[in-house]
Write a structure and sequence with these properties.
alpha/beta, Rossmann fold, 2 domains, 7-stranded parallel sheet, 6-stranded parallel sheet, 40% helix
Length: 387
């Protein structure tokens, strides 16, 4: 039986929440797909997450850098489409928007003529899904780049747009003006058995370990977490562990070196097996300026951890009711610090909140439902255009 070819275009395929979800999906799909992954940055560390039996090939294409769209990149995507001839195109976040423009030049009578005349390619018809999972440091749901808003509004009109959070769903509908029937919200899920910790000890005598997991990018604002941890006045001995890699790693290490608690802050690097770290954390911290439905938060909840976090995206709705008062508005770092102090000093509180988070996560964040939704959606879209 011929496999359906899916072309996935990522701004980066470094380890991150979006890439972790992708790995959960392709590892759980049936054998009916061939996956081609393009990393526009050239980073492919997330390949470590993919099972060896998955039919997957990675590519790096050297794009011309520009402030918005670069004409030469349309030729590059044209050649890519002709070479792979996908049955379905999947693009991820704003960083892949030029691929969406190239795809749009193949749809409709006028666009097909433009494609064939200027891009010198055949105009195969294949459907498109665009995934939006969040923003970089230059955008938030309430602070949108107007050029990007207009580009999304125009270029995504003929696409299926998938988002994980209610916040993004409302943004796509009201701000980008995507048709409601084209927007689909699919909550993230994880491999529960990998992360669940049974009989966690909450009142041990060793230092309390505060931990965070994620790509070290500016919008994650790990600098806030380091500052808060360095300044907190908890009576109990504690440590901070920052698990991840990314462009600001060295800057964060320097900040930690300049901290009064430099010996208590550790950077073990990125990991394809973060579950080993969650097992040893006592508190999970999320200090981002922008998030939507963080995979790391789900992993922490399944592991039975209490959470101190900024109120971004769907975070407040994701955690248990018992944990909700430990979610503080972005910018209120003193409140974030007070919440962290309370959890460090109170093992009974850590236990009650951690167990409540775990119960909620086990009920609603299993990957099985997510995988089924995506596989059925991919097959339906592919079959619809073939018929």
């Amino acid at each position: 039986m011929k496999k359906n070819i899916i072309l996935h275009i990522f701004p980066t395929f470094a380890l991150g929440g979006q890439q972790r979800r992708f790995a959960e999906l392709v590892n759980g799909f049936s054998a009916g797909f061939t996956h081609h992954v393009v990393s526009l940055s050239g980073e492919i560390e997330a390949v470590e997450l993919i099972d060896k039996n998955v039919d997957l090939t990675t590519h790096h294409i050297p794009l011309q850098k520009g402030a918005f769209f670069h004409p030469a990149n349309l030729q590059i995507f044209s050649a890519l489409f002709q070479n792979i001839r996908p049955d379905l195109l999947c693009t991820y976040n704003w960083g892949a928007i030029e691929a969406v423009l190239s795809w749009r030049l193949q749809t409709g009578r006028l666009q097909k003529r433009i494609w064939q005349t200027f891009l010198k390619g055949s105009a195969d018809q294949f459907p498109h899904i665009h995934f939006e999972d969040g923003f970089g440091p230059d955008e938030t749901p309430t602070r949108q780049n107007q050029k990007r808003v207009m580009a999304r509004r125009i270029l995504l009109k003929r696409s299926k747009v998938i988002v994980p959070s209610v916040t993004l769903q409302q943004l796509a509908l009201n701000k980008w003006q995507i048709d409601q029937s084209a927007i689909m919200r699919v909550p993230n899920g994880i491999h529960i058995d990998r992360f669940v910790v049974h009989n966690r000890v909450y009142d041990h005598m060793r230092p309390v370990k505060v931990g965070t997991v994620g790509a070290l990018r500016p919008e994650k604002n790990i600098a806030r977490l380091i500052d808060v941890f360095s300044n907190h006045k908890a009576e109990t001995e504690s440590r901070l562990q920052v698990v991840g890699d990314g462009p600001i790693l060295e800057m964060l290490k320097q900040q930690a070196q300049n901290s009064s608690r430099m010996d208590d802050i550790n950077f073990p690097g990125g990991s394809a097996t973060p579950e080993q770290y969650y097992q040893n954390f006592d508190i999970f911290a999320l200090s981002s300026d922008t998030e939507q439905m963080p995979i790391s938060l789900i992993e922490a909840m399944v592991s039975g951890l209490p959470v101190v976090a900024t109120n971004v995206g769907d975070v407040s709705a994701m955690v248990s009711e018992e944990n909700r008062s430990f979610i503080s508005p972005v910018g209120e770092d003193l409140l974030f610090q007070e919440n962290l102090q309370r959890l460090i000093d109170d093992p009974v509180l850590r236990r009650s909140i951690g167990l409540a988070n775990q119960k909620k996560a086990l009920d609603i964040f299993d990957r099985v439902t997510m995988i089924s939704i995506y596989e059925n959606l991919f097959m339906d879209i592919i079959e619809n255009i073939k018929s």
